[in-house]
Amino acid sequence: MKILIVEPDQERCLFLSTQLKVFGHEATRCETARAALGHFQQQQFLLILLNQKLPDMDGLDLCRKLRTLRNGNACMILMLTEHEEPQILKSILEAGADDYLIAPVRAELLKVRLMVLDQELQRLYQRNQALKALQPSLVQIEKAKQEWEATADSLTSIVCLLDSQGIIVRANKAIEQWQLGKVLSIKGTSAHALLHALCPDPECYFQGFLRQALEKVAQGKSVEHEVEDRILHRHLHLQFRPIKAGTRKALKKKESFAVFMINDISERKQWENAELYQRMLLNKVANALNVLLIAPDFQIGVTKALAILGAATAVDRVYIFKTHPHPDTREPAMSRLFEWVHKSTYTQIENPEWQNLSYNDRLRRWYKTLSESRVISGLTKDFPVTEQAFLTSQGTISTLLVPIIMNEQLWGGMGFDTCQQARLWREEETTILSVAATSIGGALLHKQTEERFHQISTELRTVFQSLPDEYFRLSANGSLLDYKVEQGAEAPLSRTFIIKWAAKLLPEEIERQFDAAIARVLKSKEPAAVTFWMPATGDEPRKYQEVRVFPFLEDQVLVVVRDMTNWKLNT
């Protein structure tokens, strides 16, 4: 990866640059904050090695400045410091650094830190990809909008010719479709009487608009107005267009003064409101996922995400449940894991009915429907009797259950309950919430897998630390994941094998044998062994060592190293 080194000490800067190149990275060097800002604005770096002490600016201030720039949050910052006081180290992290390294810098520690930061970069990339996964839904919303607008444009309109007093001269048959009168008998009726035949107020909004419109038309200007008409119970688009003198003559209607068009835009208004709601809901889903992904405490992150979804959907309760075998009968059951409730609603997370709840008792239909990746929604009163009793006991008036499918299996689901008023869900809403459920479910599964892996790693490390031999755990690409070496004068391996291997200084033949053994084990999943004499270095005599390589997990190897010098000399 591309790394920017900001180090005023030329000797240390050269050391860092050399080591980074040995590790396979591309390094750019500079000595001042001003130069660093110039490089950062011209190139994109994945990591910045930044000394806390710079000649022209404090390293902490530079760190804060970098975070405010474009792409400032798209890179990792490793702060080099000579201080070990907790308060100073805390200030480094608060300034925006991702980690720190205490000078003098050792090559092996630098390599490990770089590997850790590289893993953090990978996780950051995965989070960004999760958010980008919502983009197709936005495209679908935009496409639907265009279709809705096309539908609104094709609505049947009323078209009337009016005289200068607003009296109808002629109208089309649309007035009959609107049930406002007959075409043959409408002539001589005022436009106000056409629309508001039963209006008790002669000075209603339409009378005032009609007077203003006729005045504008007399000046050769067109007038448009949209209004929610409470008498017709429709949203209307009203348009007045002046008729030019030549057109009047062609119509042979001297009294024709203006064209009055009435469009029923009620359907269009409904679509616009639905579009605004869906855009809002989609934004809230993205916000909830972002909160979940960046929250330092996963439990708090899930709760905040559910709160965002609950407020956006105007429900009283949002919860996540997991499907699992019942601890006693092993039949399919569900348990509620997380919950958010409105302040006016009782929580159900502590309700024992919602823990290890067997689907086979009352909710067999739920298990079948959710397993088929279909949602369950409706009013409680319309559910089967056994389900009604269960939902009513929780105060649920209506509900929506969205399945979470992982690896083609029912992992669980998300529930949205209303307890104050009935709610029917539209297909567009369930589609968006299904995306949210799948994304949140994936985050939960990833978190559980991560915690399980951490537990296994901790247990294995405890076992390995108790072994007398020295070991290294490596990934498929040779990255060092874990190791255990004996410290002190009795264990020269920590100063020979690991240091030379990390720095790529092992004799070429030994390194070739070692790499070949790893490749064989990864391919065959069978153990391999390499024995060799480690050349003498300085005061250290040469050592006869045995390296055994074992397959570990799916794509890792465990390397066990033993000093066999005494055995070799005595045989």
Automatic annotation (TrEMBL):
GO molecular function terms listed in the Swiss-Prot or TrEMBL record: kinase activity; phosphorelay response regulator activity; transcription cis-regulatory region binding
Record field: transmembrane: none
Domain Response regulatory intervals: 2-118
Keyword Glycoprotein: no
One CC-aspect GO term: protein-DNA complex
One BP term from GO: regulation of DNA-templated transcription
Coiled-coil residues: 107-134
The entry's keywords: Coiled coil, DNA-binding, Kinase, Phosphoprotein, Transcription, Transcription regulation, Transferase, Two-component regulatory system
Protein name: Diguanylate cyclase/phosphodiesterase with FHA and GAF sensor
